[in-house]
Amino acid sequence: MVAMLTAALLFLLLAPLLAYTALVVQAHGLGLLPLFFQAMAEQSWQGQFNFDFLTFLVLSATWSAWRFGYGVRGWALAVLAFFGGMPYLATTLFLLRQRHGADWAAILLPPKAD
Question: Fewer beta carbons below 10 Å: N end or C end of the chain?
Answer without folding.
Answer: C
